[in-house]
Amino acid sequence: MNKVATEIDQVAQMWLEDHKTRISNVAKEKDFIDVMLGISETQQEKLSEYDEDTIIKAASMTLILAGSDSTSVTLTWALSLLLNNKDVLRKTQAELDNVVGKERQVDESDLKNLVYLQAVLKETMRLYPAGSLSVPREAITDCTVNGYHVPASTHLFVNLYKIHRDPRVWEHPLDFEPERFLRTFKDFDVRGQSYEYLPFGSGRRMCPGISFALQVMQFTLASLLHGFEIATPSDEPVDMTEHFGLTNVKATPLEVVLTHRLPHNLYS
Protein backbone atom coordinates (compact mmCIF):
# COMPACT_ATOMS: atom_id res chain seq x y z
CA MET A 1 0.00 0.00 0.00
CA ASN A 2 2.86 2.35 0.76
CA LYS A 3 4.31 1.71 -2.70
CA VAL A 4 0.98 2.43 -4.40
CA ALA A 5 0.49 5.57 -2.29
CA THR A 6 3.96 6.79 -3.31
CA GLU A 7 3.25 6.19 -7.00
CA ILE A 8 -0.09 8.02 -6.76
CA ASP A 9 1.59 10.95 -5.04
CA GLN A 10 4.23 11.11 -7.78
CA VAL A 11 1.54 11.24 -10.47
CA ALA A 12 -0.35 13.98 -8.62
CA GLN A 13 2.87 15.94 -8.12
CA MET A 14 3.61 15.71 -11.84
CA TRP A 15 0.15 17.10 -12.65
CA LEU A 16 0.60 19.88 -10.11
CA GLU A 17 4.00 20.95 -11.43
CA ASP A 18 2.66 20.93 -14.98
CA HIS A 19 -0.18 23.26 -13.98
CA LYS A 20 2.17 25.58 -12.13
CA THR A 21 4.37 26.02 -15.21
CA ARG A 22 1.45 27.04 -17.44
CA ILE A 23 -0.66 28.95 -14.93
CA SER A 24 0.27 32.28 -16.54
CA ASN A 25 -1.81 31.39 -19.61
CA VAL A 26 -5.04 33.06 -18.48
CA ALA A 27 -6.84 32.52 -21.79
CA LYS A 28 -7.09 28.75 -21.48
CA GLU A 29 -9.98 26.96 -19.81
CA LYS A 30 -9.34 26.21 -16.16
CA ASP A 31 -9.64 22.73 -14.70
CA PHE A 32 -9.93 21.64 -11.06
CA ILE A 33 -6.22 21.97 -10.25
CA ASP A 34 -6.10 25.44 -11.80
CA VAL A 35 -8.99 26.53 -9.58
CA MET A 36 -7.33 25.07 -6.48
CA LEU A 37 -4.08 26.87 -7.29
CA GLY A 38 -6.00 30.12 -7.67
CA ILE A 39 -7.69 29.63 -4.30
CA SER A 40 -4.37 28.90 -2.60
CA GLU A 41 -2.97 32.19 -3.91
CA THR A 42 -5.89 34.27 -2.59
CA GLN A 43 -6.24 32.40 0.72
CA GLN A 44 -2.59 32.14 1.76
CA GLU A 45 -3.19 33.42 5.30
CA LYS A 46 -5.93 30.87 5.98
CA LEU A 47 -3.82 28.06 4.52
CA SER A 48 -0.56 29.07 6.18
CA GLU A 49 -0.76 26.15 8.66
CA TYR A 50 -0.97 23.58 5.87
CA ASP A 51 1.13 22.51 2.91
CA GLU A 52 -0.64 23.89 -0.16
CA ASP A 53 0.67 21.21 -2.52
CA THR A 54 -0.57 18.44 -0.23
CA ILE A 55 -4.04 19.99 -0.03
CA ILE A 56 -4.35 20.26 -3.80
CA LYS A 57 -3.00 16.77 -4.48
CA ALA A 58 -5.22 15.19 -1.81
CA ALA A 59 -8.36 16.94 -3.07
CA SER A 60 -7.65 16.01 -6.69
CA MET A 61 -6.89 12.35 -6.01
CA THR A 62 -9.90 12.00 -3.70
CA LEU A 63 -12.19 12.95 -6.58
CA ILE A 64 -10.50 10.57 -9.00
CA LEU A 65 -10.05 7.55 -6.74
CA ALA A 66 -13.51 7.78 -5.17
CA GLY A 67 -15.07 8.13 -8.59
CA SER A 68 -13.11 5.37 -10.32
CA ASP A 69 -13.89 2.46 -7.96
CA SER A 70 -17.61 3.20 -7.66
CA THR A 71 -17.79 3.79 -11.42
CA SER A 72 -16.28 0.42 -12.32
CA VAL A 73 -18.56 -1.34 -9.83
CA THR A 74 -21.68 0.30 -11.28
CA LEU A 75 -20.66 -0.47 -14.87
CA THR A 76 -20.11 -4.12 -13.95
CA TRP A 77 -23.62 -4.34 -12.48
CA ALA A 78 -25.08 -2.53 -15.51
CA LEU A 79 -23.54 -5.02 -17.94
CA SER A 80 -24.62 -7.94 -15.76
CA LEU A 81 -28.22 -6.71 -15.68
CA LEU A 82 -28.26 -6.11 -19.43
CA LEU A 83 -26.89 -9.58 -20.14
CA ASN A 84 -29.66 -11.09 -18.03
CA ASN A 85 -32.29 -8.85 -19.65
CA LYS A 86 -31.68 -9.08 -23.38
CA ASP A 87 -34.81 -7.08 -24.27
CA VAL A 88 -33.41 -4.08 -22.38
CA LEU A 89 -30.02 -4.59 -24.05
CA ARG A 90 -31.65 -4.53 -27.49
CA LYS A 91 -33.61 -1.36 -26.66
CA THR A 92 -30.45 0.37 -25.46
CA GLN A 93 -28.51 -0.52 -28.59
CA ALA A 94 -31.47 0.48 -30.80
CA GLU A 95 -31.45 3.93 -29.19
CA LEU A 96 -27.71 4.22 -29.78
CA ASP A 97 -28.12 3.28 -33.44
CA ASN A 98 -30.93 5.81 -33.83
CA VAL A 99 -29.08 8.69 -32.11
CA VAL A 100 -25.50 7.99 -33.19
CA GLY A 101 -25.86 5.80 -36.27
CA LYS A 102 -23.28 3.23 -37.31
CA GLU A 103 -20.92 5.41 -39.32
CA ARG A 104 -19.16 7.02 -36.36
CA GLN A 105 -18.40 6.41 -32.70
CA VAL A 106 -20.25 7.86 -29.72
CA ASP A 107 -19.37 11.42 -28.80
CA GLU A 108 -19.92 13.09 -25.43
CA SER A 109 -22.40 15.45 -27.09
CA ASP A 110 -24.65 12.43 -27.78
CA LEU A 111 -25.17 11.61 -24.11
CA LYS A 112 -27.96 14.13 -23.50
CA ASN A 113 -30.03 12.41 -26.21
CA LEU A 114 -29.57 8.87 -24.85
CA VAL A 115 -32.50 8.99 -22.43
CA TYR A 116 -33.05 5.22 -22.31
CA LEU A 117 -29.38 4.56 -21.58
CA GLN A 118 -29.58 7.11 -18.76
CA ALA A 119 -32.61 5.24 -17.40
CA VAL A 120 -30.64 1.98 -17.53
CA LEU A 121 -27.89 3.50 -15.39
CA LYS A 122 -30.40 5.02 -12.96
CA GLU A 123 -32.11 1.66 -12.52
CA THR A 124 -28.73 -0.04 -12.07
CA MET A 125 -27.81 2.40 -9.29
CA ARG A 126 -31.21 1.84 -7.69
CA LEU A 127 -30.78 -1.92 -7.47
CA TYR A 128 -27.03 -1.92 -6.84
CA PRO A 129 -25.82 1.38 -5.36
CA ALA A 130 -22.02 1.41 -5.34
CA GLY A 131 -22.13 2.05 -1.60
CA SER A 132 -24.94 0.22 0.18
CA LEU A 133 -24.56 2.55 3.15
CA SER A 134 -24.09 6.29 2.94
CA VAL A 135 -20.95 7.91 4.27
CA PRO A 136 -21.40 8.52 8.02
CA ARG A 137 -22.91 11.65 9.49
CA GLU A 138 -22.29 12.76 13.08
CA ALA A 139 -25.00 14.29 15.25
CA ILE A 140 -23.54 17.52 16.67
CA THR A 141 -26.26 17.79 19.35
CA ASP A 142 -28.82 15.54 20.99
CA CYS A 143 -31.84 15.24 18.70
CA THR A 144 -34.94 13.17 18.01
CA VAL A 145 -35.43 11.52 14.62
CA ASN A 146 -38.79 9.90 13.93
CA GLY A 147 -39.32 9.32 17.65
CA TYR A 148 -35.82 7.94 18.29
CA HIS A 149 -33.42 9.74 20.61
CA VAL A 150 -30.03 10.30 18.96
CA PRO A 151 -27.28 11.41 21.39
CA ALA A 152 -24.67 13.93 20.32
CA SER A 153 -21.57 12.44 18.61
CA THR A 154 -23.58 9.47 17.29
CA HIS A 155 -22.44 8.32 13.85
CA LEU A 156 -25.39 7.77 11.52
CA PHE A 157 -25.49 5.68 8.35
CA VAL A 158 -28.33 5.71 5.82
CA ASN A 159 -29.21 2.30 4.37
CA LEU A 160 -29.41 3.25 0.69
CA TYR A 161 -29.81 -0.37 -0.39
CA LYS A 162 -33.00 -0.70 1.68
CA ILE A 163 -34.41 2.67 0.58
CA HIS A 164 -33.92 1.82 -3.09
CA ARG A 165 -35.86 -1.44 -2.72
CA ASP A 166 -38.69 -0.15 -0.53
CA PRO A 167 -41.94 -1.70 -1.89
CA ARG A 168 -43.91 1.26 -0.54
CA VAL A 169 -42.16 3.43 -3.10
CA TRP A 170 -41.07 1.13 -5.91
CA GLU A 171 -43.48 -1.18 -7.71
CA HIS A 172 -41.82 -4.57 -8.28
CA PRO A 173 -38.73 -3.32 -6.41
CA LEU A 174 -36.54 -6.33 -7.22
CA ASP A 175 -37.16 -6.20 -10.97
CA PHE A 176 -34.88 -4.45 -13.45
CA GLU A 177 -37.21 -1.95 -15.14
CA PRO A 178 -35.43 1.11 -16.62
CA GLU A 179 -38.80 2.32 -17.96
CA ARG A 180 -39.81 3.37 -14.46
CA PHE A 181 -37.40 6.30 -14.81
CA LEU A 182 -39.13 7.34 -18.03
CA ARG A 183 -42.60 7.30 -16.47
CA THR A 184 -43.43 7.34 -12.76
CA PHE A 185 -39.97 8.45 -11.61
CA LYS A 186 -38.87 10.48 -14.64
CA ASP A 187 -38.35 13.56 -12.45
CA PHE A 188 -36.19 11.76 -9.88
CA ASP A 189 -32.76 13.34 -9.68
CA VAL A 190 -29.58 11.38 -8.91
CA ARG A 191 -28.14 14.44 -7.13
CA GLY A 192 -29.86 13.90 -3.80
CA GLN A 193 -33.06 15.92 -4.21
CA SER A 194 -35.34 12.84 -4.25
CA TYR A 195 -34.98 11.14 -0.88
CA GLU A 196 -36.37 7.82 -2.14
CA TYR A 197 -33.36 7.58 -4.44
CA LEU A 198 -29.90 8.57 -3.21
CA PRO A 199 -27.18 6.70 -5.15
CA PHE A 200 -24.69 9.51 -4.48
CA GLY A 201 -25.99 10.57 -1.08
CA SER A 202 -27.43 14.00 -0.39
CA GLY A 203 -26.62 17.36 1.11
CA ARG A 204 -23.36 19.27 1.33
CA ARG A 205 -21.37 16.09 1.92
CA MET A 206 -22.75 13.98 -0.88
CA CYS A 207 -20.32 12.27 -3.25
CA PRO A 208 -17.94 14.99 -4.52
CA GLY A 209 -17.17 13.04 -7.68
CA ILE A 210 -20.77 12.75 -8.91
CA SER A 211 -20.30 14.75 -12.13
CA PHE A 212 -17.09 12.87 -12.99
CA ALA A 213 -18.73 9.50 -12.26
CA LEU A 214 -21.90 10.20 -14.27
CA GLN A 215 -19.98 11.40 -17.30
CA VAL A 216 -17.59 8.44 -17.26
CA MET A 217 -20.35 5.85 -16.71
CA GLN A 218 -22.62 7.20 -19.44
CA PHE A 219 -19.85 7.59 -22.00
CA THR A 220 -18.21 4.23 -21.24
CA LEU A 221 -21.45 2.25 -21.33
CA ALA A 222 -22.64 4.02 -24.48
CA SER A 223 -19.32 3.43 -26.27
CA LEU A 224 -19.20 -0.24 -25.29
CA LEU A 225 -22.79 -1.09 -26.23
CA HIS A 226 -22.61 0.92 -29.45
CA GLY A 227 -19.33 -0.57 -30.57
CA PHE A 228 -19.79 -4.19 -29.57
CA GLU A 229 -22.29 -7.00 -29.22
CA ILE A 230 -21.88 -8.40 -25.72
CA ALA A 231 -22.57 -11.91 -24.50
CA THR A 232 -21.46 -14.33 -21.83
CA PRO A 233 -19.42 -17.45 -22.63
CA SER A 234 -21.86 -20.16 -23.76
CA ASP A 235 -24.69 -17.62 -23.25
CA GLU A 236 -25.14 -18.67 -19.64
CA PRO A 237 -26.95 -16.30 -17.21
CA VAL A 238 -24.80 -13.97 -15.11
CA ASP A 239 -24.47 -14.83 -11.43
CA MET A 240 -25.84 -11.81 -9.53
CA THR A 241 -24.56 -12.80 -6.08
CA GLU A 242 -23.31 -9.77 -4.15
CA HIS A 243 -20.28 -9.37 -1.92
CA PHE A 244 -20.73 -6.52 0.51
CA GLY A 245 -17.76 -4.37 1.46
CA LEU A 246 -16.86 -0.71 1.19
CA THR A 247 -18.45 -0.97 -2.25
CA ASN A 248 -21.17 -3.36 -3.36
CA VAL A 249 -19.24 -5.65 -5.73
CA LYS A 250 -20.18 -8.86 -7.51
CA ALA A 251 -19.12 -12.01 -5.70
CA THR A 252 -17.88 -13.53 -8.97
CA PRO A 253 -16.00 -11.79 -11.81
CA LEU A 254 -17.99 -10.85 -14.89
CA GLU A 255 -16.80 -12.56 -18.09
CA VAL A 256 -17.94 -11.02 -21.36
CA VAL A 257 -17.41 -11.92 -25.02
CA LEU A 258 -17.25 -8.89 -27.35
CA THR A 259 -18.02 -8.89 -31.09
CA HIS A 260 -17.67 -5.74 -33.19
CA ARG A 261 -20.90 -4.23 -34.60
CA LEU A 262 -19.51 -1.20 -36.45
CA PRO A 263 -17.39 -0.84 -39.63
CA HIS A 264 -13.83 -2.04 -39.09
CA ASN A 265 -12.29 1.35 -39.86
CA LEU A 266 -13.89 2.83 -36.72
CA TYR A 267 -11.79 0.60 -34.47
CA SER A 268 -8.38 1.69 -35.79
UniProtKB/TrEMBL annotation:
The keyword Metal-binding applies. Transmembrane segments: none annotated. Heme binds at residue 207. The keyword Transmembrane helix does not apply. It comes from the Eukaryota. Keywords: Heme, Iron, Metal-binding, Monooxygenase, Oxidoreductase. Coiled coil: none annotated. Gene3D superfamilies: Cytochrome P450. PANTHER family: CYTOCHROME P450 82C3-RELATED. This is Cytochrome P450.
